[in-house]
């Protein structure tokens, strides 16, 4: 999908408009909620290792802060665009609202390619970002986090610069930090585990025993790996995993009808989530094309890699056995496919509910940082399970009551929640 044809911000606005119509929002409210309320664009001058100065473009979009401080990741990407960041800030608003977090939606980005920059240059970009933004960031105003091509080290450089400028300790001003410097236990597993917590809740509704189910997964990065681990621990059987190969620049599906050994696959994957195919063959697994994961005879599909994977063309070809889709990735289902899945009787848990475990755990990290008191991993995961299941129950109940799909139900709850906050504050 080229950067020219797919505009995520238009996609985000279409999803919003569709639900805004059914909620009968007035024009003022619609105008307010379909675009970010604040957009900050700035330049970051950076002294490069060779002594020259390069100027990097940065953005921070705050979609809506009626429910609480803006929350959302920072991406470093050579193709970062203002429209991508606008869309992601909007999706963060709905994601926080559907789970019931007292947070608004924000997102940030810098146009750069960390793969071509030294660590020193990356550090100077991080510190430069904070120098441009520090007045608008803080534990009670706007809380960034890692996203595409950023990690805990980048967050610590940013925190250090923020604390240097402000002259205090504010571990709650940024999340996704290493555990020994104020990060939260359980954060690594949180998104993947959250996918399975919502799946368990749905299986209970459908009176299905997880031990008798099979699943096929796209991806083997952080989200997919921990989802696969928890699902198999609970007795489910993963029969296919599709992953991308850097070397060949294409994806493959690894198959075994009796189920894959997830721990064995974790041992033969690299840091990008690519599984060593020769070693997978040696384990007795079949290797086939990258799309095959989608067409397996399984009960559950878990797209946890790329957007736009389940399309209007692919829905008719899905196995009649498929009952559930858990959207671990952002936007894995094309807009036109939703109605077809609904007609087919396939229940899908929408991305901004299904993969909200990450932001929920970031919220826990923020609380722990602000109170300077840190929880054990079991406590984090217990609280995470409770919040994810409660959110799922609300969305499922509304979908059943109105006979709509779960995406429309989740959007209805999220938009209603933000709309109420906006009205109570007297903004519209």
Draw up the topology in text:
Blueprint: H1 8-23, H2 27-33, E1 38-47, E2 53-64, E3 70-76, H3 82-99, E4 104-110, H4 119-133, E5 142-146, H5 152-166, H6 187-205, E6 214-218, H7 222-233, E7 237-245, E8 250-255, H8 262-267, H9 277-282, E9 286-289, E10 300-303, E11 324-326, H10 337-344, E12 347-349, H11 351-354, H12 357-371, H13 377-402, H14 406-425
Short description:
This protein has 428 residues and is α/β, with parallel strands linked by helices. The protein has 14 helices and 12 strands. The protein starts with 7 loop residues before the first helix and ends with a helix.
Q: CATH architecture of the domain at 188-349, please?
A: 3-Layer(aba) Sandwich
CATH superfamily of the domain at 188-349: NAD(P)-binding Rossmann-like Domain
Order of helices and strands: HHEEEHEHEHHEHEEHHEEEHEHHHH
| Spatial separation of the terminal alpha carbons | 38 Å
CATH class categorisation of the domain at 188-349: Alpha Beta
Low-confidence stretches: none
> How many DSSP-defined strands?
12
Pfam family, one: ELFV_dehydrog_N
Keywords: Oxidoreductase
InterPro entries: Aminoacid_DH-like_N_sf, Glu/Leu/Phe/Val/Trp_DH, Glu/Leu/Phe/Val/Trp_DH_C, Glu/Leu/Phe/Val/Trp_DH_dimer, Glu/Leu/Phe/Val_DH_AS, Glu_DH, NAD(P)-bd_dom_sf, NAD_bind_Glu_DH
Domain Glutamate/phenylalanine/leucine/valine/L-tryptophan dehydrogenase C-terminal: 184-426
Would you write up a description of this structure?
The chain has helices at residues 8-23, 27-33, 82-99, 119-133, 152-166, 187-205, 222-233, 262-267, 277-282, 337-344, 351-354, 357-371, 377-402, 406-425; strands at 38-47, 53-64, 70-76, 104-110, 142-146, 214-218, 237-245, 250-255, 286-289, 300-303, 324-326, 347-349. The protein is α/β, with parallel strands linked by helices. Among the domains are: 35-170, Rossmann fold; 188-349, Rossmann fold (3-Layer(aba) Sandwich). α7 (222-233) links the parallel β6 (214-218) and β7 (237-245). It starts with 7 loop residues before the first helix and ends with a helix. Catalyzes the reversible oxidative deamination of glutamate to alpha-ketoglutarate and ammonia.
């Amino acid at each position: 999908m080229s950067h020219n044809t797919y505009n995520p911000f238009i996609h985000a606005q279409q999803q919003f408009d569709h639900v805004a119509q059914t909620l009968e929002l007035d024009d003022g409210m619609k105008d307010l909620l379909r675009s970010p309320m604040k957009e900050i664009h700035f330049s970051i001058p950076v002294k490069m290792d060779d002594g020259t100065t390069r100027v990097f473009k940065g953005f921070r979009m705050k979609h809506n802060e009626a429910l609480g401080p803006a929350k959302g990741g920072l991406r470093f990407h050579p193709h970062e665009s203002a429209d991508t960041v606008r869309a992601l800030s909007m999706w963060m608003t709905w994601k926080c609202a559907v789970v019931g977090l007292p947070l608004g939606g924000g997102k940030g980005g810098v146009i750069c390619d960390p793969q071509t920059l030294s660590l020193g240059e990356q550090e100077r970009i991080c510190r430069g970002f904070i120098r441009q933004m520090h007045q608008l960031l803080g534990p009670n105003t706007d809380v960034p986090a890692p996203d595409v091509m950023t990690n805990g080290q980048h967050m610590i450089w940013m925190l250090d610069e923020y604390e240097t400028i402000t002259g205090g300790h504010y571990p709650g001003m940024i999340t996704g930090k290493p555990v020994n410097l104020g990060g939260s236990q359980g954060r690594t597993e949180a998104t993947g585990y959250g996918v399975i917590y919502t799946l368990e809740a749905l299986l209970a509704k459908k009176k299905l025993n997880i031990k008798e189910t099979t699943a096929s997964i796209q991806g083997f990065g952080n989200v997919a790996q921990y989802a696969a681990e928890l699902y198999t621990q609970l007795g489910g059987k993963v029969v296919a995993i599709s992953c991308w190969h850097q070397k060949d620049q294409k994806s493959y599906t690894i198959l075994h009808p009796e189920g894959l050994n997830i721990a064995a696959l974790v041992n033969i994957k690299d840091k990008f989530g690519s599984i060593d195919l020769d070693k997978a063959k040696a384990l007795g697994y079949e290797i086939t094309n990258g799309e095959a994961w989608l067409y397996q005879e399984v009960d559950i599909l878990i797209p946890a890699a790329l957007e736009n994977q389940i399309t209007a063309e692919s829905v008719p070809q899905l196995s009649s056995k498929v009952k559930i889709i858990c959207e671990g990735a952002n936007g894995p289902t094309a807009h036109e496919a939703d109605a077809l899945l609904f007609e087919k009787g396939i229940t899908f848990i929408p991305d901004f509910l299904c993969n909200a475990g990450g932001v929920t755990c970031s919220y826990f990290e923020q609380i722990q940082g602000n109170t300077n008191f840190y929880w054990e991993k079991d406590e984090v995961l217990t609280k995470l399970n409770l919040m994810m299941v409660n959110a799922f129950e609300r969305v499922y109940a509304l979908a059943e009551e109105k006979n709509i799909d779960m995406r429309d139900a989740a959007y209805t709850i999220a938009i209603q929640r933000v709309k109420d906050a906006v009205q109570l504050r007297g903004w519209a």
